[in-house]
Amino acid sequence: MNEMKLVFKSKLVNEVFARTSVVAFLAPLQLSMEVLMEIKTIVAEAVVNAMIHGYEGNEDGDIYLEVCCDDEIVILDIYDQGCGIEDIDLAMQPLYTSREDLERSGMGFTIMQSFADVFHIESRPGVGTSLHIEKRLQ
Protein backbone atom coordinates (compact mmCIF):
# COMPACT_ATOMS: atom_id res chain seq x y z
CA MET A 1 0.00 0.00 0.00
CA ASN A 2 1.04 3.55 -0.65
CA GLU A 3 0.65 6.00 2.23
CA MET A 4 0.46 9.76 2.78
CA LYS A 5 0.24 11.76 6.01
CA LEU A 6 -0.61 15.44 6.31
CA VAL A 7 -0.95 17.75 9.29
CA PHE A 8 -2.40 21.20 8.75
CA LYS A 9 -3.96 24.02 10.75
CA SER A 10 -7.70 24.34 11.21
CA LYS A 11 -8.05 27.24 8.76
CA LEU A 12 -10.89 27.05 6.23
CA VAL A 13 -8.46 27.78 3.37
CA ASN A 14 -6.74 24.47 4.14
CA GLU A 15 -9.84 22.47 3.19
CA VAL A 16 -8.96 23.01 -0.49
CA PHE A 17 -5.36 21.99 0.24
CA ALA A 18 -6.57 18.75 1.86
CA ARG A 19 -8.88 17.85 -1.05
CA THR A 20 -6.38 18.59 -3.78
CA SER A 21 -3.56 16.81 -1.94
CA VAL A 22 -5.64 13.64 -1.68
CA VAL A 23 -6.65 13.80 -5.36
CA ALA A 24 -3.01 14.33 -6.42
CA PHE A 25 -1.90 11.42 -4.23
CA LEU A 26 -4.54 9.15 -5.79
CA ALA A 27 -3.80 10.23 -9.40
CA PRO A 28 -1.70 7.14 -10.24
CA LEU A 29 -4.77 4.96 -9.62
CA GLN A 30 -6.58 6.63 -12.56
CA LEU A 31 -9.91 6.62 -10.72
CA SER A 32 -13.16 7.60 -12.39
CA MET A 33 -14.38 11.16 -11.96
CA GLU A 34 -17.33 9.82 -9.93
CA VAL A 35 -15.09 8.03 -7.42
CA LEU A 36 -12.75 11.03 -7.16
CA MET A 37 -15.69 13.35 -6.49
CA GLU A 38 -16.96 11.04 -3.75
CA ILE A 39 -13.53 10.92 -2.09
CA LYS A 40 -13.12 14.71 -2.41
CA THR A 41 -16.53 15.19 -0.80
CA ILE A 42 -15.66 12.84 2.07
CA VAL A 43 -12.41 14.73 2.71
CA ALA A 44 -14.08 18.14 2.50
CA GLU A 45 -16.89 17.19 4.89
CA ALA A 46 -14.53 15.58 7.40
CA VAL A 47 -12.06 18.46 7.39
CA VAL A 48 -14.73 21.17 7.65
CA ASN A 49 -16.42 19.25 10.49
CA ALA A 50 -13.11 19.20 12.38
CA MET A 51 -12.67 22.93 11.81
CA ILE A 52 -16.18 24.08 12.65
CA HIS A 53 -17.27 21.55 15.25
CA GLY A 54 -14.05 20.04 16.63
CA TYR A 55 -12.09 23.24 17.00
CA GLU A 56 -15.14 25.53 17.05
CA GLY A 57 -13.50 27.93 14.61
CA ASN A 58 -10.15 28.09 16.44
CA GLU A 59 -7.60 28.21 13.62
CA ASP A 60 -4.69 27.01 15.78
CA GLY A 61 -5.83 23.38 16.02
CA ASP A 62 -4.12 20.65 14.00
CA ILE A 63 -6.02 18.33 11.66
CA TYR A 64 -4.41 15.01 10.78
CA LEU A 65 -5.16 13.33 7.46
CA GLU A 66 -3.76 9.92 6.56
CA VAL A 67 -4.44 8.15 3.27
CA CYS A 68 -3.49 4.58 2.35
CA CYS A 69 -4.33 3.07 -1.01
CA ASP A 70 -3.74 0.34 -3.50
CA ASP A 71 -5.63 -0.78 -6.61
CA GLU A 72 -8.52 -2.12 -4.52
CA ILE A 73 -9.13 0.33 -1.67
CA VAL A 74 -8.63 3.86 -0.36
CA ILE A 75 -8.44 4.21 3.42
CA LEU A 76 -8.84 7.64 5.01
CA ASP A 77 -8.14 8.43 8.66
CA ILE A 78 -8.95 11.99 9.69
CA TYR A 79 -8.67 13.15 13.25
CA ASP A 80 -8.47 16.21 15.45
CA GLN A 81 -7.76 17.05 19.07
CA GLY A 82 -10.78 19.28 19.41
CA CYS A 83 -13.74 19.30 21.76
CA GLY A 84 -15.04 15.84 20.79
CA ILE A 85 -18.62 14.70 20.28
CA GLU A 86 -20.89 14.19 23.30
CA ASP A 87 -23.44 11.94 21.56
CA ILE A 88 -22.27 10.25 18.34
CA ASP A 89 -25.68 8.66 17.67
CA LEU A 90 -27.33 12.08 17.79
CA ALA A 91 -24.59 13.65 15.64
CA MET A 92 -25.15 10.93 13.03
CA GLN A 93 -28.84 11.81 12.63
CA PRO A 94 -29.60 13.48 9.28
CA LEU A 95 -30.29 17.21 9.67
CA TYR A 96 -28.87 17.36 13.21
CA THR A 97 -26.34 20.13 13.73
CA SER A 98 -24.72 21.44 16.87
CA ARG A 99 -24.08 24.76 15.10
CA GLU A 100 -27.46 26.13 14.05
CA ASP A 101 -25.94 29.59 14.49
CA LEU A 102 -23.82 28.91 11.40
CA GLU A 103 -26.75 27.58 9.36
CA ARG A 104 -25.12 24.16 8.96
CA SER A 105 -27.24 21.54 7.16
CA GLY A 106 -26.49 18.63 9.48
CA MET A 107 -25.81 16.29 6.55
CA GLY A 108 -22.01 15.91 6.72
CA PHE A 109 -21.87 12.50 8.41
CA THR A 110 -24.78 11.24 6.29
CA ILE A 111 -23.02 12.27 3.08
CA MET A 112 -19.69 10.75 4.13
CA GLN A 113 -21.38 7.52 5.18
CA SER A 114 -23.28 7.26 1.88
CA PHE A 115 -20.04 7.47 -0.15
CA ALA A 116 -18.05 5.07 2.07
CA ASP A 117 -17.99 1.28 2.31
CA VAL A 118 -16.78 1.51 5.92
CA PHE A 119 -17.44 4.56 8.11
CA HIS A 120 -16.45 4.60 11.77
CA ILE A 121 -16.33 7.44 14.30
CA GLU A 122 -14.57 7.48 17.64
CA SER A 123 -14.79 10.52 19.85
CA ARG A 124 -14.18 11.55 23.43
CA PRO A 125 -15.31 14.91 24.78
CA GLY A 126 -12.29 17.08 25.50
CA VAL A 127 -9.96 14.73 23.60
CA GLY A 128 -11.04 14.82 19.94
CA THR A 129 -12.65 12.90 17.12
CA SER A 130 -11.31 10.27 14.74
CA LEU A 131 -12.91 9.13 11.47
CA HIS A 132 -11.93 5.90 9.73
CA ILE A 133 -13.30 5.61 6.20
CA GLU A 134 -12.78 2.94 3.57
CA LYS A 135 -13.74 3.21 -0.09
CA ARG A 136 -13.45 0.05 -2.18
CA LEU A 137 -12.37 0.60 -5.77
CA GLN A 138 -13.40 -2.78 -7.24
From TrEMBL:
Gene3D superfamilies listed in its UniProt record: Histidine kinase-like ATPase, C-terminal domain (3.30.565.10)
Entry GO MF terms: ATP binding; protein serine/threonine kinase activity; sigma factor antagonist activity
Q: Does the keyword Transmembrane helix apply?
A: no
Could you tell me the keywords of this UniProt record?
Answer: ATP-binding, Kinase, Nucleotide-binding, Serine/threonine-protein kinase, Sporulation, Transferase
* Signal peptide location: none
What SMART domains would the database entry show?
HATPase_c
Q: Name one GO biological process term.
A: negative regulation of sporulation resulting in formation of a cellular spore
**What range(s) does the Histidine kinase/HSP90-like ATPase domain occupy?**
34-138
Enzyme Commission numbers on file: 2.7.11.1
Pfam families recorded for this chain? HATPase_c_2 (PF13581)
Q: What class of enzyme is it?
A: transferase
Give the top-rank taxon of the lineage listed in the UniProt record for this protein: Bacteria
Asked if the keyword Nuclease belongs to this entry, the reply reads: no
Show the PANTHER family listed in the entry. ANTI-SIGMA-F FACTOR RSBW, ANTI-SIGMA-F FACTOR RSBW-RELATED
**Protein name per Swiss-Prot or TrEMBL:** Anti-sigma F factor
The species this protein was found in: Candidatus Merdibacter merdavium
The top of its lineage is: Bacteria, Bacillati, Bacillota, Erysipelotrichia, Erysipelotrichales
The gene designation is spoIIAB
